[in-house]
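INFO  loader      accepted 1 record
INFO  loader      residues=62
INFO  predictor   begin
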Amino acid sequence: MNQVINLNRVRKRSKRDKQAKEAAANRASFGRTRTQREADERREQRLRDLHEQHKMKSGDET
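INFO  predictor   done
INFO  writer      dumping tokens
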């Protein structure tokens, strides 16, 4: 025979699992020290600067 499934329990369990995943993502992105955030900002700025250095300027190639 098949087992009886309580849909309310399934919904609540899936909601808890979803919230747990979201909480883990928030801890990863917001639960950081100031030095970690500043290091990431410096790294991103450096990558943007490197990208800008390799762009070709239009109209200056003549």
